[in-house]
Structures are given as C-alpha cells and as structure tokens.
Amino acid sequence: MKGNPQLIQALNELLADELSAINQYMVHSEMCANWGYVKLHEQYERRAIDEMKHAEKLIARILFLEGTPIVSSLKAIHIGADVVKQLDSDHTAESGAIAAYNAAIKLAGEVNDFATREMLEHILNDEDQHIDKIEELQDQISHMTLPIFLTTQVG
C-alpha cells in the first residue's frame, strides 16, 4: 500500500528519535551498572528494550507503506554524567518524543491513515509511561535527597 510521503517522512523522524533513545538509555544503563545502581540499570535497560520495540514497529509500518526506513540518522544523544543529569536528559528526550508522536498522530488522521494513527497512539501511551517513571524518580530524589535515593538503587 503506497503511503503518504509526508507521513512516511514523519515516521522516519520518529524512527530516528527511537534509535537515538535506545543508544542514550543503553549508555545510561551501563553507567548505572558500573556504579553499582542495579535497579536503575535494569530500569534503563527495560526502557531501551521498549524503544527497540517501537523502532521495530515503525520500520515495519514504513515498509508496509512502501517507504524506506532510514536507520542511519540519529538525533542528538545527551549522556548524563551523573544520575540527576541522566534523568534530566531522558526527560527532555521523552518530552520531545511525546510532542513528535502527537504531531504524527494528527498528520496520520489528516491523511486518513487510521491504522498508522492507532499504532502511533499505542507507542505514545508507552512514551507517557516512560516520562511518568522518569518524573517519579526525579520526585523521589527531591523528597529523599540524592544520596539516600541512590542507596535504594543498589542491587
């Protein structure tokens, strides 16, 4: 099925976001593992896997729409030097992704591609959960202080 070129371009932009997020989360995951923060390591790793699944769905949809998935383009990746900076970088990335998914959902509706819109809505729900978890961790840090929070993240 030949898809709308503008929508295929938007899907490729979302794909770039997802591929960038995978890299950012994997680096953050391994940094936390190196510091001994096993629980944070596992959370980042799960989030990276979620983003991989999103990328897989986007690639499949682009191919279905007879487009070419662009996997060589990444967005800026911001690696935090500490846990607080990691969470701040991740919050910024997720906020941008949520805005991009909302725009793509609107576009999919405008070009009457409701199957793509539904797929994007499911991914958006995951992204909402990601930012909620990031904000939960940030709130815990503000309530407990960073040193106490970090003691709760050791394996």
Automatic annotation (TrEMBL):
GO terms for molecular function: ferric iron binding; ferroxidase activity; heme binding. InterPro entries: Bacterioferritin (IPR002024), Ferritin-like (IPR012347), Ferritin-like_diiron (IPR009040), Ferritin-like_SF (IPR009078), Ferritin_DPS_dom (IPR008331). The gene is bfr. This is Bacterioferritin. Pfam families: Ferritin. Its EC number is 1.16.3.1. Residues 1-145 form the Ferritin-like diiron domain. PANTHER family: BACTERIOFERRITIN. Fe cation 2 binds at residues 51, 94, 127, 130.
